[in-house]
């Protein structure tokens, strides 16, 4: 794989030097959470060792340093996503938190009411399903689910029928399915949903570590993700929201920072982005997310994506040649490869290959309705990152082959 020095990339991830059950670690659970490179670990350590303090409210030196670093991270994220302005980048605790924020403020604002429709797809993670169900319960709206074809792609005809027949107020879709790795054609879907009059939220939790995201070209109203799947710490995430919309929508959580003036007769709220950032944020996490994006930019995200795609194709080819292996999702998947072996429970095989040092995810991947659609309780999912290499693929395939023999 010319031009991409995976050995150099691997040397940036200290955890890869560790053994698991006496074997060098093969980490293929990046869709659940990615490992962290030295640049991110160092940033977090330096934050606590050198500038730890609360932001925005302090006049002292450390507070100003921490504030400047935190706001600089917002600028890095703004440019990484090509957002129109830094006010559109809201720090949250993660994708789940961002989706709950959007669902709540759309509810508070009365944007959704009895008889209205909220459309999602059968791919959605529980965190892009349950907040909308809760909003339906509160508002009297109904949830419409766009089905998924047997080949693991979205039923586009059904999507367009839902837009036409139900005229949904909100359409919420994942960019990449965390369960199957399917890439959804989100630009086209967003355009069609807008033409039908809907607001569009894209769940980018799985896209952010693999694809170059341009929120202006994509043109969705909201784009959400977590930092921890993109080499940053847990507990930090982002809501990108169109400024003209967020300016009009009401605040969500009340507290410090989100106010301009508090008076018992009535409180006035802060401007964006602080209007949606009540309370002390995950300061270190925000700064480390900036460092993670700089790390990714340094690798060149397109090169990372090409590298990962070659590995996923190698794994798909090798696994599908093993007896009884069924792959899920289309061949042009990104990030994750889901499979089952006939007659063997995913949990048993996952546990066995862990003993061989190979970490994959087993289970429903927080997509129970998708698993039900395919008549399964779960899959094994190998998910890739910038540091995985051909040896990881070979170790995975060998472990699946050996584990299968042991369980048969
Ligand atoms: N959406 C998708 C597609 C995901 O894969 C995940 C995490 N598995 C989430 C949302 C939720 O992310 P978090 O738990 O970090 O909030």
Your description of this structure?
By secondary structure, the protein is an alpha/beta fold. It has two domains: 6-30 and 300-407, Aspartate Aminotransferase, domain 1 (Alpha-Beta Complex), CATH 3.90.1150.10; 41-297, Aspartate Aminotransferase, domain 2, CATH 3.40.640. 40% of the residues lie in helices and 16% in strands. It has helices at residues 6-10, 38-51, 61-80, 95-108, 130-139, 156-166, 186-195, 215-218, 243-248, 283-299, 301-320, 346-355, 368-373, 390-407, and strands at 19-20, 23-24, 26-27, 89-92, 117-121, 142-146, 170-174, 199-203, 222-226, 237-241, 259-261, 268-269, 325-328, 336-341, 358-359, 361-363, 379-383. It has a seven-stranded mixed sheet, with helices on both faces. Strands 13-14-17-16 form a four-stranded antiparallel sheet, with helices on one face. Helix 7 links the parallel strand 7 and strand 8.
Major sheet: 7 strands, mixed
Query: Between the first and last Cα atoms, what is the distance in angstroms?
Result: 36 Å
- Total E-strand runs: 17
* Fraction of residues in helix: 40-55%
Q: Give the C-level CATH assignment of the largest domain.
A: Alpha Beta
* Spatial arrangement of strands, main beta sheet: 4-10-9-8-7-5-6
Count of the separate structural domains: 2
Q: State the low-pLDDT regions, or none.
A: none
């Amino acid at each position: 794989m010319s031009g991409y020095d995976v050995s150099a990339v691997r040397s940036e991830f200290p955890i890869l030097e560790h053994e698991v059950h006496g074997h060098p670690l093969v980490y293929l659970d990046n869709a659940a959470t990615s490992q962290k490179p030295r640049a991110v670990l160092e940033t977090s350590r330096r934050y606590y060792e050198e500038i730890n303090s609360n932001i925005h409210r302090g006049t002292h030196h450390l507070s100003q340093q921490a504030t400047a670093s935190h706001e600089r991270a917002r600028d890095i994220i703004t440019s990484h996503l090509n957002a129109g302005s830094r006010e559109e980048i809201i720090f949250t605790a993660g994708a789940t938190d961002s989706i709950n924020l959007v669902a709540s403020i759309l509810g508070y604002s009365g944007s959704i009411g009895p008889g209205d429709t909220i459309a999602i797809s059968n791919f959605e993670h529980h965190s892009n399903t349950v907040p909308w169900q809760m909003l339906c319960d509160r508002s009297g709206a109904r949830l419409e689910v766009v089905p998924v074809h047997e080949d693991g792609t979205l039923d586009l005809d059904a999507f367009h029928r839902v837009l036409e027949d139900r005229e949904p107020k909100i359409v919420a879709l994942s960019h990449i399915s965390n369960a199957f790795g399917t890439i959804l054609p989100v630009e086209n879907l967003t355009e069609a949903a807008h033409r039908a009059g809907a607001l569009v939220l894209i769940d980018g939790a799985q896209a952010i570590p693999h694809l170059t995201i341009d929120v202006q070209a994509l043109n969705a109203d909201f784009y959400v993700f977590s930092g921890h799947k993109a080499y940053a710490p847990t507990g930090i995430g982002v809501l990108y929201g169109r400024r003209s919309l967020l300016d009009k929508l009401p605040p969500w959580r009340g507290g410090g920072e989100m106010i301009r003036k508090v008076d018992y007769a009535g409180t006035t709220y802060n401007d964006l982005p602080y209007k949606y950032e009540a309370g002390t944020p995950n300061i270190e996490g925000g700064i480390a997310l900036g460092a993670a994006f700089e790390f990714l930019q340094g690798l060149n995200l397109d090169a990372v994506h090409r590298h990962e795609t070659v590995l996923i194709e190698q794994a798909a080819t090798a696994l599908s040649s093993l007896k009884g292996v069924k792959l899920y999702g289309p061949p042009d998947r990104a990030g994750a490869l889901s499979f089952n072996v006939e007659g063997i429970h995913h949990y048993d095989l996952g546990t066995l290959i862990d003993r061989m040092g190979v970490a994959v995810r087993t289970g429903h991947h927080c997509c129970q309705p998708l698993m039900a659609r395919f008549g399964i309780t779960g899959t094994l999912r190998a998910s890739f990152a910038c540091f995985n290499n051909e040896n990881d693929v070979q170790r995975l395939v060998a472990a699946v082959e050996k584990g299968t023999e042991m369980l048969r």
